[in-house]
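Hey, I'm writing a tutorial for new members on how sequence and structure tokens pair up, and I'd like a real worked example in the thread rather than a made-up one. If someone can provide the structure for the chain below, I'll link this post from the tutorial.
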Amino acid sequence: MSVRDPRAAAETVRVAIRKLLSGRALTALEISGQVGIPHKAVDEHLEHLQRSSAHRGERFVVEAASCLGCHYEFNDRQRLGRPSRCPKCKGERIDPPRFRIEAA
């Protein structure tokens, strides 16, 4: 069974992600579903977009992940992936980070 790729044939994955993130915030899972790539591959593309956005005159914005139990926010986290557990309450119900790209 073949999986249908929702991207245009000539469009790269990163171009598709950049278009998605322009003006709206999405989680890595939402990005993977809309671009048609595995969820685990999204973090690598986001890291590249984060590094290259300044050269394009854009700002890569990360809305921090937060614990759904105690509302702890992971503001100082450098990694883009979803944290596995909360350092404060040790809960595992984490609202994942959201990403968007804004014009600088």
